[in-house]
Amino acid sequence: MKGLKLFRVLGIQISLNYTWFIVFGLIAWSLASAYFPSRYPDLSSIAHWVMGFLGAFFLFLSVLVHELTHSYIAKKEGMEVKEITLFIFGGVSQLTKEPEDSKMELKVALGGPLSSLALAFIFWIFSRITSPMPHLILITGLLGYLTFINLSLAIFNLIPGFPLDGGRVLRALYWRKTGSLKKATQIASEAGKWFGVGIILLGFFWILKGDLIGGFWFVIIGIFLRSAAEGGLQQVVMKGALEGVKVRELMSRNIISVPSSLRIDRLVEDFYLTHTHITYPVLEGEKIIGIVTLKQVKEVPRDQWIDKTVKEVMMPIREEIILDPDGEAVDALQKMIRTGEGRLPVVRDGKAVGMITRRDLLNLLEIKTDLLE
Ligand SMILES: [Zn+2]
């Protein structure tokens, strides 16, 4: 997931998803134009906007504390957390692996909502202190909102639908009962999808009743939950099917490569029009120095085909586009997703020893899911 890198806490990179800027604006606007004016009609609109922006900013910090609590527990349990990407109403903590047992998952999942509850309690205490002082009405209003929003964050995240924290709790309990992570993920994701639909319907109901902004937020949150539930399941199924499979088991060994000095017109004539491949490893002597794909050839104007060589248009070899024969098939899939390349060379000691395609991975996935259904 792409994001703006902010800073590091506890050795974890905190990033901001770009959608956050839009959402930040929307939250500040709905606070300044609806939430605060209805509660504090005597304050000026400037005061409402100041409260709106501060409210959105402290909401962001509250979400950050929630996510950091998850990550802190995960780290203590021995999982590595590289990055937290914050967006809409939460974050995605990039754990490098799934939790190993249901107990670990339970601890990590419950930490976030508990920290939100704790924050709600702290903000509530402070609002009790400031509320008798009329000149602090702006701060009291803000504290009241922060109590409400942290309580909402705790409750929303405890909805028992994967990938929300409550869904992870459900998954952990079901996992403990059945011993199958895949089955537990399926059940928890299914619940997540239905809760998503329920929240969308609730949103429309509120819009019909006249609460446009509140209803609108529910629709957005429902859509987000539904798609996240689907994505989370797919990821687990894919990882499960490719688990333990090595690149060398899936790669094809009879590779056709091209010399780096070959001219583009010859490449098209002798390779693209004679073989069916769209990606070729480029060799200099015995060594692989890059790959050339149909996309790069198409970028060269036709009248330059006789002047240019493969070496001038190829993608030079780098870590992201090559695979190790002993590497995991899951890594191959991740590299394909990251680079957008459907065919990657398998390299050992500088030599191309095979090619692996997205098709190879998907075939295995189809076979395995068919057999295991
Ligand atoms: Zn959480």
Present the secondary structure layout.
Blueprint: E1 4-9, E2 12-16, H1 19-39, H2 45-76, E3 81-87, E4 90-95, H3 102-130, H4 137-157, H5 165-178, H6 181-209, H7 212-242, H8 247-250, E5 258-259, H9 264-272, E6 279-284, E7 287-293, H10 294-299, H11 310-313, E8 315-316, H12 329-339, E9 343-348, E10 351-357, H13 358-372
Helix pairs in contact: 1-2, 2-3, 2-4, 3-4, 3-5, 5-6, 6-7, 7-13
The structure holds zinc ion (ZN).
List keywords for this structure.
373 residues; alpha+beta
Rounded to the nearest angstrom, the distance between the terminal CA atoms is 30 Å
What is the average per-residue confidence, as pLDDT, rounded to a whole number? Answer: 84
Number of strands: 10
| Tally of helical runs | 13
Report strand order across the widest sheet. 1-2-3-4
Global structural class? alpha+beta
State the share of residues found in helices, binned by percent: 55-70%
Rg estimate, integer Å: 26 Å
